[in-house]
Amino acid sequence: MKISNSTAEDISEIFRLYESATAFQKTKYNLHWPKFETSLVETEVNEHRQWKITIDGKTACVWATTFDDPQIWEAKNADPSVYIHRIATNPEFKGQNMVAIIVDWAKEYARTNDKTYVRLDTVGQNEGLINHYTKMGFDFLGLFDLANTDQLPAHYHGNPVSLFEMQVV
């Protein structure tokens, strides 16, 4: 298993995993990911904020990070944090607890970058994800209506978000 930055060559695989995750979301929930802009992922790749886990040469999981997330975290954005977005697991690796691997990695990544928190969000009150993320050690902060979503992907518009954080010790 290896964790590394995604490259431009990975973009089609990232979108394949997004499409797979969205198809799964549609079977379980009313809210699901929209089709993301290619430029969003290209920017993340170029800024070394798009990540992947590879196992036996296959992409097992992808996610994105940022150190700044003001539209979602509003006043709390001032806290030094690593924000995780769009975790998408390859169906071939479902059940292998990719989130636990990402959490362990993110805690170390936060420490290395002098951050106090690892944070993530999900749109809506998704009880399955709330339970999963709290089992991974995140504190569920509650459901929040965002003041300004104009620069966020479409699924955030008009929908509350569940916020999660983990303090890195």
Automatic annotation (TrEMBL):
Record domain N-acetyltransferase: where: 1-169
Protein name: N-acetyltransferase domain-containing protein
SUPFAM superfamilies registered for this protein in UniProt: Acyl-CoA N-acyltransferases (Nat)
Coiled coil: none
Pfam families: Acetyltransf_1
InterPro entries (UniProt xref): Acyl_CoA_acyltransferase, GNAT_dom
